[in-house]
Amino acid sequence: MLRSGIIFSRPALRSTFYALRKIQTSSLRPPLAFSFDIDGVLMAGPNPLPAAKNALKMLEGDNPFKTKIPFILLTNGGGYTEQARSEKISKQLGFEISPRQVIQAHTILKEWVGKYADSPVLVLGGRGTEMRQVAERQAIPLQASYGFRKVYTPIDILASNPSIQPLVTATPADLSSAIPMDLSKNPISAIFVFHDPRNWFTDVQIMCDVIQSGGIIGGPYVELDQQLSNPIEVVFCNPDLIWKSDFSRPRLGQGAFKEAFQAVYKALTGKTYPFVQLGKPTTETYIFAEKTLNDLLSELYGPFDSPPAIYMIGDNPESDIAGANRAASRANSRWSSILVHTGVFDPMKGPPTHTPTHQAADVEQAVRWAIEREASRLVGAESL
């Protein structure tokens, strides 16, 4: 049966949607909102998945509520400003997505600027100076600016003293974009792994140099107890060991780089180095996502008393599903999780490591199921 462009899979829901039309409320506010992973849910590499556009069309108003349903893109990917990422994915999907709807693995680092705005920080990941451009204060729109003022990259450090990594030669293009620094007068205060590093060999070496010397690269090593009790803060933004691209099998992600760094540091010192983990499935990231969705809902429909149901649609049980399930355990939180079969998770290899609220073949079926579920609940509540 076809209603509002949606094929309802359960005949028993026909009466539900007829009843929805009769419900008279003071607000058109929809009872739910969505959080989508990108890779493996909406996209396969640079290409939209076939179901993605139909799913987003439902949220634009082609649904039983006849209203716009708020959504965000919550990804462990990164490497761009939110402005640039929203423009890129808007073109790919054919839907207008604002920067505020994009939460990347490193977006939450905007909240760390107050602590490190004027301190030298080392930023890892991406190509060349891409991550410097994301992290530092720029004369560009406010939403695109993070605000760190003293951002350095491994290329800057190699340009300052090439003997730091004698087995790697920086290219002329790298050197032309480098900001040479006096390593003895610019102690690194924190290391932010914004995005997946390209040169693990160099990056692990420089991280160990920073940590073991108390921030002064090339300086004498400090005692191990001091390294661990008063550590240089290390932040990893993406815990994913693997991720799904347009290649046939999953690829290693930033989580693999973290494991490599920890293995080397432990081999050197016998200890594991303390770190902060951001990104899915961390609680901090889901709290940030929930606040963003609630703000978007308030802007569209005004203040509200009860929070909406939030559906996390993802392809990775270890990040998308685990994080949403953990968020659901918080007081006054209404997260549900839907695992799709278009990305990392392969249903042929057995059940997922974290049990979702529901499984769906693709994102279109996932969105349809969530809308049907909340519509049924709304009708049931009105009939009491």
Automatic annotation (TrEMBL):
Single Gene Ontology BP annotation: glycerophospholipid biosynthetic process
Entries under Gene3D superfamilies matching the protein: HAD superfamily/HAD-like
GO cellular component: mitochondrion
Pfam families for this protein: Hydrolase_6 (PF13344), Hydrolase_like (PF13242)
InterPro entries according to UniProt: CDP-alcohol_PTase-I, HAD-like_sf, HAD-SF_hydro_IIA, HAD-SF_hydro_IIA_CECR5, HAD_sf
Taxonomy, superkingdom: Eukaryota
Name of the molecule in the record: Uncharacterized protein
Native source organism of the sequence: Tetrapyrgos nigripes
